[in-house]
Amino acid sequence: MEKPVKLFDMKKFQQNVNRELRRAYPDRRRLECQCLSAVAFVKSESELLDCPIWVLIINVVAMDMLKSKLPPGNFPSVLTSSWLSLAFRFYNLNVTA
Length: 97
Known about the structure:
Oligomer: single chain
Structural class: alpha+beta
Strand order of the largest sheet: 1-2
Largest sheet: 2 strands, antiparallel
Order of helices and strands: HHEEHH
Distance between the termini: 22 Å
Number of strands: 2
């Protein structure tokens, strides 16, 4: 409590992007999900979507960098979904940065 924490580490994200680009089939969706951060202001429930107030923060700078390094092409994008679908997808994915 009352201790600042880093919400997004751009250096670590760049390392993850470079690592993903070395793969035969880069997973764009996995990288896009790393650009999303959910913050619950009242943690009264165990499920994020059941909490009374929460926000989903999209790091557009990281998304833009990702777009320049890994063009969308035929890869399905997380951002083409509706916001609710996006929230469920983020909540259900087990992505570790």
